[in-house]
Amino acid sequence: MGLGKTFIGSEKSISYENQILVVCQKSKIDDWVKHFETYYPDEIVSDLSSKHPDYTAGIMVINYDIVWRREPIKELKDITMMLDESSCIKNPKSKRTKGIMKIKYKNLILLSGTPTGGKYEELITQCHMLGWKISKNLFYKRYCKYYEIDSGGFKIKIVTGYKNIAELKEQLKIYGAIFMKTNEVMDLPEQIESIITCKQLTQYKKMVKDHLCTIDGIELVGDMSMKQMLHLRQLCGIYNKYKMSALSDLMESTEDRLIIFYNFKLEFENIKKLCKKLKKPISYVNGSGKELKNYEEKSNSVTLVQYQSGAMGLNLQLSNKTIYYSLPLSGELYEQSKKRTHRIGQGKTCFYYYMMTDDSIEYDIKETLEKKENYNLKLFEKGREEIV
Questions:
Q1: 97 and 13, same structural domain?
Q2: CA contacts within 13 A on the Cβ side of 264
Q3: How confident is the model at residue 2 (pLDDT cuts 50, 70, 90)?
Q4: Which end of the chain is more exposed for a tag (fewer CB within 10 A), N or C?
Q5: What distance in Å separates the CA atoms of residue 75 and residue 204, rounded to the nearest whole number?
Q6: Distance CA 190, CA 187 (A)
């Protein structure tokens, strides 16, 4: 991550001299269009998500969510297709993945800083697209350590580890895939992490004990493990007045640009109100859109980033300070989020501030994420073990 995949991918795609289709996340469409228009001014670039798409353009850009719905794309032939953040096609059963795999491409470029999210079995679809038609069963037998459990007559594989990884990487090289870490290619500034502890609400303890509590006139019921986890996270973030107070202190202590990662819409609203109170210019990236003008122009701005919308692909190296108001459940999004500031163009030490509620689920989540694992999967496996 942070090695300039945009430049490498665009140069490679242009070299094939075919019509180019770039598939990316919705938040990255404008960035790709501007990149090609800036560095390849002789090329005609079309945003296929717009009201007036041009399917004859030399370079076409579209997002994952609609690419499989556009009939004219199915008629394209012998194109060069580039998938930005190719881990978005790791689910072979999704309509997105099935639609993309039906596109008639001649050349394929996959770009990703986290192609597996720490899980090698999630490479299978990308292997197939690169031309290695290894079956799912053979992949598991050769490269995964796992056991199977019965789920209503269906066998579910639970991966516990991996094997023959050197062989796997050598095999992938044959099909054009090379894995390298940032520190193997270039020197980037130091990364320093700090934990800011926040007091726990009395309602949190009640939710742990009784699976039920009331806060701000709202009744939270954790009658299932997933709902219990959700409400515990909300009590650590949305409803935790102590965490908001600690965030206020942190924001008042600096006039530097700040990046704040969050999960829930109410977290966004609460932090936005705090920014206005402290007279901090606001930018944001979330499901509603992307507005980065203040980030780009104001040195004391605060940029609020929702994980699903902005943890991948964004260039935020004007800032060197990142605050995790709440943590994601995905190890992949967590790893990606740290690289929004720690990338090419960053000349300062990168600081990461984790706002953690005392003696809470947030510490379990962070421990899981540091292992590049998904916390919701851990919870699922724990539930399975209890049933068994």
A1: yes
A2: 14
A3: low
A4: C
A5: 55
A6: 9
CA 336 – CA 330 distance, rounded (Å): 10
> Which pair of tokens denotes residue 376?
């919701």
Residue 355, domain extent? 191-387
First to last CA, the chain: 40
What contacts 80, CB < 8 A, 6 or more positions away?
A: 13, 16, 18, 19, 20, 21, 105, 106, 107, 108, 109
Classify residue 139 by burial, with Cβ atoms within 10 Å: 0-12, 13-18, 19+: middle
**Dihedral pair phi/psi, residue 170, rounded to 5°:** -65, -40
CB 350 within 8 A of CB 325: no
The tokens describing 354, both together, are 């984790």
Q: Are residues 253 and 369 both part of a single domain?
A: yes
Q: How many domains does the chain have?
A: 2
Q: CA-to-CA distance for 56 and 336, rounded, in angstroms?
A: 34
So what's the pLDDT on residue 380?
Answer: 55
- 378 pLDDT band, cuts 50/70/90, is low
Model's pTM, two decimal places?
Answer: 0.73
Angle at 374 between CA 9 and CA 225, to 5 degrees: 145
Give the length of the chain.
388
Average pLDDT score over the chain: 90
Distance of CA 271 to the CA centre of its chain: 21
- Kindly provide the b/e burial profile for residues 71-81, where b requires at least 16 CB atoms within 10 angstroms of the residue's own CB: eebeebeebbb
Coil, helix or strand for 259? Answer: strand
pLDDT tens per residue, range 94-144: 999 999 999 999 999 999 877 776 788 989 999 999 999 999 999 999 999
CATH number, domain containing residue 303? 3.40.50.300
Which residue in 271, 281, 273, 335 sits closest to 305, CA to CA? 271
Write the CB contacts of 65 (distance below 8 Å, at least 6 apart in sequence): 26, 96
- Average pLDDT value for residue range 14-41: 93
Of 182, 215, 232, the domain-final residue: 182
**Sign of the CA dihedral running 141, 144, 145, 151:** negative
Beta strands 258-262; 20-24: pairing state: unpaired
In the block, residue with structure tokens 């984790």: 354
- Name the residue with tokens 């209503």: 152
Same domain, 89 and 217: no
- Quick one: which H or E segment has residue 367? helix 361-370
Residue 119 sits in the same domain as residue 85: yes
